[in-house]
Structure formats: C-alpha cells, structure tokens
Design goal:
Elements lengths: L3 H11 L18 H11 L19 H23 L4 H9 L6 H14 L6 H19 L1 E14 L15 H5 L3 E16 L4 E8 L19 E13 L2 E9 L20 H6 L3 E11 L2 E8 L14 E9 L3 E13 L5 E15 L2 E12 L2 E15 L2 E11 L11 E7 L1
Helix pairs in contact: 1-3, 1-5, 3-4, 3-5
Length: 424
C-alpha cells in the first residue's frame, strides 16, 4: 500500500486484451495512432536503440515490427516501475518515474492499448523464421568443430615369469624381474579428439592419449593417466587435385591394414605384435591420400623416428600403401624405405614390405597380413591371421593367430616368438 498509484500502473500493464487475428507481415498504415505514440515514447527514452526518423519515415512498419517496438516500451516501463518501488520514499519514487520527462496515466493507457493490439504478433511466422535461421547458423558453427573420444578399461592378471614378447605389454620387464602376479584393473586407452574445419577444403585433427602404457622398472608406479601424449596432430587439405588430399603434421603411417585403422574399429584391443615390432604407428611429415574407383592409395615422406620425435639423421623415409577392392575382398601392398642410426651411430638401411588381404561376408570376415623388415644386416618377418563371426547382434567371436621371427638368420624354435590369441 506504500505507492498505490505505482501498483495500479503495473496492474494496468499486466492485463492483456485479446487482439484481433491478423497477418503479422501486414503493414500498419502511417496514419495509425501507434506511430505518434511510439515517437513520443522514443523522445522520452522508452524506446532505445532505434535510429531517429524510423517512425517518421515513408516506409510503413509491419505488425511484427510494431509489436517488437511496443514490447520494448513495455519492458522499459516495467523496469522503471520496479526501480521506483525500490526507492525508500514516495518523493524519490516519483523522481525516478519522472525521468526523463514524465510518465502519465494517459501514457499507461496508450501502452496498454498498443500492447493488447500487437502483442500476439510476436509469435508470428516472421519471428519463427528469424529464430530458425539463427538456429541453423549456430548449428553450422558447432558442426565445424567437434570434440569426441573413447575409453578402454581392462582387467589383467599376468602370471608370466618370462619377459613379454609384445611391445604392447604393459608390464615390460617387471614380471620378468620380480616374477610376481600382476592382478589389476587399468585404463588401457583414454582418447580425446579435437577436430574441425578451417575452410571449405581445410580441416584439422588433434588426438591425445591420456592413459597410455608406461614402461618403468618401478613395480608400484601407477600406470593410469601417467603418459599423456599427442598422437594425430595434422592439417588436411581436401581435393588439392582430383581425388587427392594432403596431410601435414603427425599422422598414422600408411603401412599395413591395422596401422592406419583406428583402435576403436579394430577387433582386438592390441594390434598384432609383428606389426608393432616392425612398424611405427605415428610419424611426422607430409602425406597424400585418396581413392579413385576401386583403387585406394596413401604415400608419405616422414622423419622415420616415430611418434613425437625429431629426425636424428639427414635422411627422410618414404612410406606408402596401395589397395584394390572387389565387392567382398580387398588386397593391399605396403612399402617402406628409410635409414636409421645403429648403436655405432652409422646409417643403416631400414626397409619394410607388407601384404594384406581382407575378405568379408554377411556376418563375418577373415583378414591376414604379412610383414618383412630389414634393419642393416638383420631381417625380421611376421604375420597374423584373424577371423570373426557374429553370433548375436553386437556379439562376435574373434580368433587370431600370430607369429614373429626377430632374426631369420638364426633360426630355431628358441629364436622365434610365436603366440596364438583368442578373444571374444
């Protein structure tokens, strides 16, 4: 009851009469009383951000445009009334409402009348079209940049008393040195990927591994989230020529089937140890890739030192893969030619040759790869064969057999690291 006249003013604005149905895009005639009223309100500071002369121009406003202006006036008046009611005295409240040149009862009546006439036009097709356009623009910006990732959690019980043969073994020499059971849950992979478009043809991708394997002789070291590193980190230009894309930065080597394929798309959590012993998954350089008809190809000029490493010699290595696809079968050939330092700091040849074959049928498939490598005078070779069969939706039985010969010149069963694996 302190300022009854203010409360009555607010009550007057709160009541809305039902407006007549009309097309919001219809023009409001220039002789309509709203023009003169809104011009007065603009002069008094109740309409902000509107260029001078719009209400006196020659182009009539649409009902929707008029509704927006009336809504702005109502919003400003309510804000002033709220501020006035917060004043400690009637005199100060009146002073607040008088800024800049008074707000009369006739003004409130006119505002209420205009609000009743135009308020429903704010929900017009024009407004809906405007909001839809703004939403599409926002979606376009969001789709240009994406963040995604995946997580692989594992339980491992390792009772081995001999040194692991696989470079992917998380325990390395711990089990061999301590001959102890490793019984633990661990995070095998925690990948985070940021990617997006820079322009119509240029894009980028950056991948981080947040929980990679740690090779340490400390038996009690926590091996989860302790080896954060960058993996993919490249810029890509699409269609620099017909069917040709270019990547620059750190990327997956174009060798074999498994190396360039995402971990999330492989049947086993670990790649074949023949491939990981003989090939580097990531390297730095420039790569071209593309597909034309049944042919696919990738070729790269790289440092040859692997992931997150500078080149340590004056030579650049060449890597490439060519594939040909039939309806159910794909065959590929990989080639790598490079040089590396040996333990005497001399350059030695580092060459790799690979063959791969994949056959897919309705609910299953078969794949095999052979890799042969030569480092100086040492020749290594390995291969694997893998088969899968779907037994229920989202459930496959997968089996893999693999072998690695670390030095073909020695021979004998003791020199050959052979292992078979079955996983479902």
């Amino acid at each position: 009851m302190r300022y009854l006249w203010i409360c009555l003013g607010i009550w007057a604005l709160a009541g809305l009469a039902a407006s007549a149905l009309a097309d919001p895009l219809d023009e409001v005639p220039r002789e309509h009383r709203a023009y003169a009223a809104l011009q007065t309100f603009q002069d008094r500071g109740l309409v902000r951000g509107l260029p001078q002369g719009v209400l006196k121009g020659t182009r009539p406003l649409t009902r929707y445009e008029m509704a927006v202006l009336v809504s702005a006036v109502v919003k400003e008046v309510k804000a002033r009334m709220k501020k006035a009611m917060e004043q400690p005295s009637k005199k100060e409240a009146e002073a607040e409402l008088a800024t800049p040149s008074g707000l009369t009862a006739e003004d409130l009546t006119m505002i209420r009348s205009l609000q009743a006439e135009f308020s429903k036009d704010l929900d017009s097709p024009a407004k809906q079209k405007e909001e839809a356009t703004a939403l599409k623009d926002l979606e376009k910006i969001v789709k240009q940049h994406t963040i995604k990732g995946y997580l692989q959690v594992r339980y491992q019980n390792d009772q081995s008393s001999q040194r692991a043969e696989s470079a992917n073994d998380l325990w390395g020499s711990d089990a061999a040195k301590n001959n102890q059971i490793k019984d633990t849950f661990l995070i095998r992979r925690a990948r985070l990927q940021l990617g997006g478009k820079v322009s119509d043809k240029a894009s980028y991708q950056i991948d981080w591994e947040l929980a990679g394997p740690v090779r340490s002789n400390e038996p009690n070291q926590d091996r989860s989230f302790t080896n954060v590193r960058t993996q993919n980190a490249y810029l890509q230009w699409g269609e620099v020529a017909k069917g040709v894309d270019v990547q620059v930065g750190q990327f997956k080597n174009p060798l074999s089937y498994e190396v360039p394929t995402s971990d999330a798309k492989l049947e086993f959590p670990e790649r074949s140890f023949a491939l990981t012993r003989l090939l580097s998954i990531y390297d730095r350089g420039v790569k071209i890739l593309g597909k034309r008809d049944a042919w696919g190809y990738q070729a790269a000029l790289v440092n040859g030192n692997g992931e997150n490493r500078w080149d340590d010699n004056r030579h650049k290595d060449i890597a490439g893969r060519v594939t040909y696809s039939w309806p159910a079968v794909t065959a590929g050939v990989s080639l790598y030619r490079g040089k590396a330092f040996n333990d005497k700091n001399n350059d030695i040849a580092r060459n790799r040759t690979g063959l791969d074959l994949e056959w897919n049928w309705n609910r299953g498939g078969f794949r095999t790869e052979y890799i042969r490598g030569k480092d100086g005078t040492i020749t290594r070779k390995g291969w694997y064969a893998m088969a899968r069969q779907q037994v229920a939706p989202a459930w496959d039985i997968v089996s893999r057999y693999q072998e690695l010969d670390p030095d073909t010149a020695i021979g004998g069963a003791a020199a050959k690291a052979a292992r078979s694996e079955k996983q479902t």
